[in-house]
Amino acid sequence: MTQRITILFTLLIFGILPNIALCSDASDGQHNTRYFLGTGIGYSATLLHDSGMSPLNYNGDNLRSTVYFLRNAPHSVFENSFLMDYGGMNSRFTSSRPVVNVYLYNELTYLRKLTTNLPVDLRLWAGASLPVFFGSRTHLGFVNNDFHYDFAAILTPRARLDKPFTFSDLRFTASLDASFSLISYSIRPSFNNSLASGFLQEYDSPAQALLRSGTINSPTNLFFTQTVSSLNWHLANNNQIRLKYHWHFYSIKGFNDMMAGSHSIMISTLFSFQ
Amino acid sequence: MKNLFSYILFLFVLSTISCERLFIDDDPKNSPLVIFDELWQTIDEKYSFFEYKEINWDSLYVVYSAQIDEDMTELQLFDVLANLLFELRDGHVNIVTNFNLSRNWNWYQNYPVNFYQDIIDNNYLGNDHVISGPLRSQIIHNIGYIQYRSFASTISASNIDFLIEQMADVNGIIIDIRNNGGGSLANANMLISRFADERRLTGYRVYKSGPAHNEFTDPVPIYDEPAGPRQITGIPVVILTNRRAYSASNQFVMRMKEFPHVTIIGDRTGGGGGTPVNAELPNGWRYRFSSNMTLDASGNNVESGIDPDYQRDIRSQDYDQNRDTIIESAMRIIRRELNNPND
Q1: Which residues, in sequence order, are bridge partners of residue A46?
Q2: Average pLDDT for residues A253-268, to the nearest whole number?
């Protein structure tokens, strides 16, 4: 418990952070607004526990791919990133990867640069993200209830600390992001079935049944947190190469609790256009 | 300041490595009592027929947990768990291991067989019968006979539509699902749609909505309606059943009997009105159990089977003469309905 509090507090420092000290509205030296489109590929490792599927933990490796849209302005950042994981998972009793893991994740992020009394080359940003994800596990050894899933849309405050620097005449930016959930909307399978609860009664349309299946959650019911560490290499032609380490964890409480965490490392290319 | 920042940054990054393991507990202990408790608890919360079958699951915990010993072997543990699950009297409940399968087959083992494939092959299907996917058929005295051995075998639209075209001019259809132990409801849906005269309410499903034995959703209606290029509705359709017609076969009978031109002949079906779902135990064994209930259109629970319209068993004298009493009865009923359609 103490470790969890420590981690949460550490995340809080970088998550919801009031203006520490506003001393001047100094310009950071960035020039025009730049737009980027990017693609990337990488590897992720997932550990999860889905009580509706099994009392056992499942873990596995995934191929991760991503696409980005990014707008960098002198005092604000807007980013839309979409990623997909695909892989197989084992319990400690299997080796044939009987669970197929597919994870789709889209995140909108808006950050504004804060004026602080940190050293001038350190930049603090704060804002919000809206991650929306669909995680599915198909257990190939099961029949009738082989498909398990979570859908969630989450509002999270987000903070970023970054530091541009040069090394061997090359320009880099190192950054560290963190966010955690405030309020969310989620859909999970019903108590004893792969169908969502809205489909276990008469319905006029699948969309109506789907909307009826969802719940609004506080952070105690759906907890989501993530940290992103990245290193951007700014090329002479304004494109960037990004190396990113992303960790995230979520848990959803209900009749069948669900917890999942994943680590990933990705390399992406961001193409500049104006 | 820079050193402090670097230090905080380092600690923060370090704290996020394998962080989720702080939140996700280790696997449950692989011990006989933990495994027993997991099985008993999951069945207690998610099995659908405790009240219908008047099973005192709490008392069975007392009886069978007393047989659990932390030093027992895998085989011994399997036997105790199998005996526990046997009490559910359900063909959809099994533990699957690499050395055995637990089961309760009393739903057919204590009843007449009423099915002899060699008699059917020799005297009804013959050597020139048609094989359309999993459907074997023959036209006998202008009555179409279709045998479907397992709903686990996929019927394609082309399989059934070909047969319907072939049998366009027959006086009646016999669908023989004796010994059909069930399978995919998608195949049942396909077959029913070719014999449905109009959209009809044909049953209900009731789902577990919570852990209490009586926590269920309201009944969700099942409707069947015509689909495909052609249906058989204007002639008598007779379905043959026996005790080994189970699960998807049971539901096929339940839904088909709501259509006015359909008659059921043979023995009571074996039942199996719950949809089986799978789960795992802390030692990796898998098991399945019934997760919901199925009711017919009148609200009757079909878990223990459906009575035929006409009870028929294969008589020994017919067996000695290589005749199938149930098929012969079906043909007589078809001819009688043709001659007296208002009876």
Answers
A1: A60, A262
A2: 95
Chain A, window 17-46: residues with a beta carbon less than 8 angstroms from a chain B beta carbon: none
Phi, psi of A32 (to 5 degrees): -85, 170
Find out whether B177 and B148 touch, Cβ atoms under 8 Å: yes
pLDDT tens string A32-53: 899 999 999 999 999 999 999 9
> Which chain B residues have a beta carbon less than 8 Å from that of A262?
20
Which residue stretches of chain A are H helix? Answer: 2-15, 206-213
Whole-number Å distance between alpha carbons of A69 and A34: 11
Closest by CA position to B287, among listed B93, B66, B136: B93
Report the candidate in B210, B205, B285, B206 with the shortest Cα–Cα distance to residue B45: B210
Q: Which residue has the higher pLDDT, A193 or A223?
A: A223
The alpha carbon of residue B293 is apart from the nearest alpha carbon of chain A, in Å, by 12
Reported as a single tens digit per residue, the pLDDT across B251-283 is 999 999 999 999 999 999 999 999 999 999 999
Question: Chain A closest CA to B213's CA: distance in Å?
Answer: 13
Closest CA to A248 of A41, A107, A78: A107
**How many CB pairs below 8 A link A and B?**
130
Chain A: give the shortest CA distance to residue B133, in Å: 22
- pTM confidence score: 0.88
For strand B172-176 and strand B237-241, is the pairing parallel, antiparallel, or unpaired? parallel
CA-nearest residue of chain B to A6? Answer: B15
Side-chain-side CA neighbours of B233 within 13 Å: the count stands at 17
On whether any CB of chain B is under 8 Å from the CB of A7, the answer is yes
Q: Is the ipTM of this complex over 0.90?
A: no
